[in-house]
Amino acid sequence: MADKTVIAFDLYGTLLSTESIAKELATHFGQEKAASLAGLWRRYQLEYTWRLNSMNPFIASASPVDSPEGQFQPFSDITRNSLDHALTDSKLFLDDESSGHLMKAYDSLSTFPDVSPALKALADERAITAVVFSNGTNSMVTNSVKSSPGLGPHADVFKEIVTVEEVQCFKPDPKVYYHLAEKMGKGKSKQAMSEMWLVSGNPFDVVGARAVGMQAAWVDRGGAGWTDGLVRGETGKPTVVVKGLGEVVEAVKKHRRFL
Q1: What does the sequence similarity comment in the record state about its family (predicted)?
Q2: pLDDT tens-digit profile of 204-252?
Q3: Which fold has domain 18-107?
C-alpha cells in the first residue's frame, strides 16, 4: 500500500448527492419545498460540524487532567438534528416515523452521474489505492457504500473506509487528515502528506487537506470555478480542478509526471 498513490474520496457531496434526498422529501412536501428543504438540511448539517469543531477545547500543551472533553456528536445525530432545524426554519413538520424513514433513506442517496463510470475505470488502476474518507459514522458510511445503487456495484474499488469517529472531530480539522495518513500507513511528514490525494466537491474540505500539505482535486461539476478566498496563495487552492470524477486519475498522473 505504501508504494501506491492514495486517493481519498469524500462521500457526501462528492460521490453521493445530498440534494438527491429531495426525492424523499417531495413525498411529504412537494418538489418545490423539498428542494429548498434539502439545501437547508445540508447547510445545517455542515454548520453543526464546524460549530462543534470550534467548541472543541483541545489544547495540545495542556495535561490530560486540565483538558476538558471536546464537543463531539456522531454524524448520524448531527444529520437528524439538522433535519429538525431545517424543518423548524421552514415551518414544516414530520412525525418521528417519517423522520426515521428519511434517515434510512440517507443511507442510499443517489450518486452523481459521473461516479459509476469513473469507479469502473478506477478498478483497473493497479497503482492507486482508493479509499472513502468521510465525516460520517462508520455505520452510515458503510451502509451508504453498500446500499447506494450507484456505489454498491463498485464497493470493492475502495480498499478502506476512513471516518472521523476515532478522532472525534470533523473536517477541516487537521487531525482528521493526519488520521487518514495514519490509517493508510503514512507518516505525518510533509513528504508523506504531499503524496496523498483528496478528491472532494466541498471547498472547505479541499482547503483543509491543502493546509496540511495533501494534494487535492476539487470536483467543479457546476463549472463555476474556484472562488473560495479563505486562504490566499497556492496552499489554499486545489492542486487540480476537474469537471467530473472521470478526470481525476489522469489529473493525478499528470501532476506526478511534472514533479
Answers
A1: Belongs to the HAD-like hydrolase superfamily. S-2-haloalkanoic acid dehalogenase family.
A2: 999 999 999 999 999 999 999 999 988 887 778 999 999 999 999 999 9
A3: DNA polymerase; domain 1 (1.10.150)
